[in-house]
Amino acid sequence: xDELFIRQNSNKLPIRILAKQQNVxxxxxxxxxxKKGLIKELQTIEMQFIIKNIxxxxxxxxxxxxxxxxxxxxxxxxxxxxxxxxxxxxEYTEEEVLNKTRWLIEEKMVLAINDLLPKSIKAxxxxxxxxxxxxxxxxxxxxxxxYFKFFSAVAFLVCKAYPNEFKPYQFSxxxxxxxxxxxxxxILELRWIIENKLGLEEFLxxxxxxxxxxxxxxxxxxxxxxxxxxHIFKDKKEIIQELVxxxxxxxxxxxxxxxxxxxxxxxxGIDTETCYIDGCTANNIEIHHIIPKRYRNFVSFNVDDAFxxxxxxxxxxDLAGKMDTESLPVQNKEIWRGLVKExxxxxxx
Length: 349
What we know:
Largest sheet: 2 strands, antiparallel
Structural class: mainly alpha
Strand order of the largest sheet: 1-2
Helix content: 40-55%
Number of helices: 21
Strand content: under 5%
Number of domains: 4
Low-confidence stretches: 249-254
Oligomer: single chain
C-alpha cells in the first residue's frame, strides 16, 4: 500500500476509489485513515458494515475492525440507535446464534468446513471473541436434547450450524459423553463413520480389511479413539469382532441401503438387474456412486441422487472407481453416467 499516495489523495478521492486503486479492503483503509488522523467522521461504507454485521458479529469486533475508540463507538451506537441491551439466553433466536457461530468459524477463525474443524474449535474461541452468550445458549439448549445432552455446547452449536456435516463426538468430549457410549451405540456410530466418512461399503466390513483400514489415527480423528472405547472394549480387536458381527444381520436388512439406491434408479428407468456396460452379462450387480460417498460432505448435492448412480458388475464397479471424476461437468450431471460408461468401456479394452 502506497501510504504517501493515500495521504496526498485522501481529501481528493473517495475512499472506495482509493481502496480499489491500492487493492485493499475499504474497511481496512478506513481503519488506517482514522488511526493516521486523516478521517474522523463515520464513512458510508462503515455504516453499511455495522448494519450488515451487527446481528452476527460481537460489538467489540466491529469496533476493532473500524478502528474506533470505545467513546467514539458508543456515540455512534447512540446516534444511530444501535444500542443493544444485555439479553438473557432465551432472548436469542436460533438463527442469530447459528449466524454468529458461522461468523466465528468462517470469518474470524477462517476455518475450512471439513473433518479437521472439530479438532480446531474450542469453547475458548467463543469466549475470546465476545460470544460467551452464544456458548451459554448452546449449553442451555443441549440439556433438553436427548442426543446432544451427552456432548459439548460447541458440538451442539457447530452441528446445528452445519447440518449433516459432523457428529458431536468428533468435538472435544464433555464429562457426559462417556455416558452416551455403550457397545451398541459405539458400533452404530462407527458404522456411520465407516460409510459416510471413510466411504467404505458395508460388504467390505470384514476382519482382514478392518485390521488394516481402521487405524488408530482414523479412530482418533473422528472422536472414537482409545479414550472413548477403553471403558467399553478391551482393545481394537474386540471392536472389529463386534463390528463384523453387527453386519451379520438378515440379508433384507443388510441390503436396505442398496435396495433404496436400486429403487432410485428404477424410478428413472435404469435397469438395476444388468450391468450398465454394453455386452456385460455378469450378474453380480452393485450400485456405483460416480462421485464417491466419502465426498458427500464436500459437494452441494446428494450423492444418492439418481444422476450419481449406475448399476455395474463387481469388475466394472472396481474399474469405475479408478476414474478421475474431477473433469465431469458440474452443470450437466445427467450425462455423467454416459461419460463413466465410455471411460470404463475404453479402459476395459
